[in-house]
Design a protein that fits this description.
Radius of gyration: 19 Å
Helix content: 40-55%
Shape: globular
Largest sheet: 7 strands, parallel
Distance between the termini: 40 Å
Strand order of the largest sheet: 3-2-1-4-5-6-11
Strand content: 15-25%
């Protein structure tokens, strides 16, 4: 198939593009290569893709309406995997406009491109952050997500609502994937696995928010990609059992689906740090700090809906995943 992957120089976009190419799909990757984090890392990811048959890269900003309209009109994609976004909960406190431009205007441009060019299925990235003030664990797609506690989360919730509207109005098949704390080789430098590993190896203190009383459902990148590709292949369909009297947030009479992709395991931050100490052979120097605005204390994904739909659920243990990540980090940074 001919697939558009947005955010192709990003962490998940790079791995997804590689997986699609390996199975023989044609991939057009786009990215604006912004400086939210080290552009060299993004360029090095792209270098792994550039010489592969079937791959083309275009430097484009999804917020550029004219450029996106031209792209869709010229390329006629069969599938779209939309992974480009302004990421990060804490960054949204300082730079809210970046989230409106990329996550709202950019996503609208994607929806319009899919609508006018009859894309057969659009899969888009949502986030576990949409669960916000929810405390019932594990987080289930059947739960309401009406209480986000960061602007980033609010934009991801908005994406789900926008996607449903287009699915309803134009019968455009849409599937949203709520990712839970993705990590692994070629990961994002703004996330804890990357930050902690670098600082522990350098003998520098790590900032541990909420004084370490947090837990996260860490999900290894290979499991995320498997879920993305499988859901891309399963075109969203209307749910015949859906009722407006008791509306499920995860399905619809429109061709629309929402799934969690997580490991269904909540890992305490203290254990996560202990594993990094073991893998690096160094002791972490911990700077215990209060909770950050917008952070939730604990996440854990109910993935039953995903498993039922596509016959897959993530299974890579945090022990195996961190072992692979630290090995990659040492090799990439020569430390």
């Amino acid at each position: 198939m001919k697939v558009l992957v947005t955010g192709a120089a990003g962490f998940i976009g790079f791995h997804t593009s590689r997986a699609l190419l390996e199975r023989g799909d044609e991939v057009i990757g786009i990215d604006n290569l912004n400086a939210y984090y080290d552009v060299r890392l993004k360029e090095d990811r792209l270098a792994q893709l550039q010489d592969r048959p079937g791959f083309r890269f275009l430097k484009l900003d999804i917020a550029d309406r004219n450029a996106m309209t031209k792209l869709f009109d010229e390329e006629r994609f069969e599938r779209v995997v939309h992974l480009a976004a302004q990421a990060g909960v804490r960054y949204s406190l300082q730079n809210p406009q970046a989230y409106a431009d990329s996550n709202l205007q950019g996503f609208l441009n994607i929806l319009e491109g899919c609508r006018h060019n009859h894309v057969a299925h659009c899969v888009f990235a949502s986030s576990s952050s949409v669960y916000g003030a929810n405390t019932q664990l594990p987080f289930s797609v059947s739960q309401s997500v009406d209480h986000p506690i960061s602007l980033y989360a609010a934009t991801k919730k908005a994406n789900e609502l926008m996607a449903h509207t287009y699915a309803h109005l134009y019968r455009l098949p849409m599937t949203g994937l709520r990712f839970f704390t993705v990590y692994g080789p070629w990961g994002r430098p703004d996330m804890a696995p990357f930050i902690f590993t670098g600082k522990i190896l350098a003998g520098e203190p790590i900032d541990v928010f909420n004084e370490g009383r947090q837990a996260r459902d860490f999900t290894y990148i290979d499991d995320i990609v498997e879920g993305v590709v499988r859901t891309m292949d399963k075109i969203a369909e209307p749910d015949a059992s859906w009722s407006g009297d008791h509306p499920s947030p995860a399905t619809s009479r429109a061709p629309y689906r929402i799934y969690n992709i997580g490991n269904n395991t909540s890992v305490p931050l203290e254990y996560f740090i202990a594993l990094l100490e073991k893998e690096t052979g160094r002791k972490a120097i911990k700077n215990l700090l209060p909770a950050q605005p917008g952070d939730v204390p604990m996440t854990c994904a109910d993935v039953d809906a995903l498993a039922q739909a596509v016959g897959f659920k993530p299974s890579t243990s945090i022990e195996d995943g961190l072992h692979r990540f630290v090995a990659w980090y040492r090799d990439y940074y020569k430390v």
